[in-house]
Amino acid sequence: MKKTGKLIVFSAPSGSGKTTIVHHLLQFKELNLDFSISATSRDKRGKEIHGKDYYFISLKEFQKHIKNNDFVEWEEVYSDNFYGTLKKEIERIWALGKNVIFDIDVKGGLNIKSQYPDQTLAIFVQPPSITEMERRLRNRKTDSEEKIKERVLKAEKELKFAADFDVILVNDELEIAKKNAYNLVNNFLNK
Questions:
Q1: Ramachandran angles phi, psi of 180, nearest 5°
Q2: What is the residue-level pLDDT of the chain in tens, covering all 191 positions?
Q3: How far is Cα 56 from Cα 36, in angstroms, rounded to an integer?
Q4: What are the beta bridge partners of residue 35?
Q5: Where does the chain show beta strands of DSSP type E?
Q6: Contact call for residues 15 and 142 (beta carbons, < 8 A)
Q7: For residue 6, which of 80, 99, 109, 147 is within the disulfide window of CB 3.0 to 4.6 Å?
Q8: Pairing relation of β-strands 71-78 and 81-86?
Q9: Which domains, and CATH codes, for the chain?
Q10: Distances from the Cα of 28 to the Cαs of 21, 22, 31, 83, 182, in angstroms?
Q11: Where would I find the H helices in 41-169?
């Protein structure tokens, strides 16, 4: 794959606020960012839109892409719920002359960083606590009790990887986290 633009990775456990922060950063034209749309085999949640929030593909189609080595990274995040970044998605954004911003799981984020070490800023968004993260998940009202418990268990494991990222951004106060994220990204893009 041709390596041209920069890559900004935001990873975090569910409920940490990474999606909110990524959407905030996309508003700033001077950052020249475009959102990397992940592919997933899971069903849509809420008002998610195919081709905007995710590329929703069947499990069979996802596995075919894996076999064809079409992904930069992929993972079975939950049982039969695969997520991944298609190589052609990064190429699409770089062809526009833009930098790629990712809202991606922890292992996927570290995978991208390992493949593009000099071009990637990997930011781990950390919730103030597991309790607060669980409260945020409940307030979203998009997941079953079983799913919430699964996400909390996964978060406890993911938090152990925080130190492997370039920066840990604690999202205690959202407005402060948004400002800090902007400064981190802006400084990285301008160095």
A1: -65, -40
A2: 455 799 999 999 877 889 999 999 999 999 999 999 999 999 998 899 999 989 999 999 999 999 999 999 998 877 888 999 999 999 999 999 999 999 988 989 999 999 999 999 999 999 888 888 888 888 887 778 888 888 888 888 899 999 999 999 999 999 999 999 999 999 999 98
A3: 14
A4: 101
A5: 7-11, 33-35, 38-40, 54-56, 71-78, 81-86, 99-104, 120-126, 167-170
A6: no
A7: 99
A8: antiparallel
A9: 7-189 (3.40.50.300)
A10: 12, 11, 6, 27, 9
A11: 59-67, 87-95, 106-115, 130-140, 145-158
Residue 10 contacts residue 123 (beta carbons within 8 Å): yes
Question: What letter does residue 37 receive in the DSSP assignment?
Answer: P
- In angstroms, rounded to a whole number, what is the distance separating the alpha carbons of residues 145 and 139? 12
Q: Residue with structure tokens 């922060």? A: 21
For residue 69, what are its two tokens? Answer: 């080595």
> In 10 A of CB 84, how many CB atoms?
27
Interatomic CA distance for residues 121 and 10, integer angstroms: 9
Say which amino acid occupies 98. K
Residue 172 in tokens = 């205690």
The answer to whether residues 177 and 171 touch, using CB atoms and an 8 Å cutoff, is yes
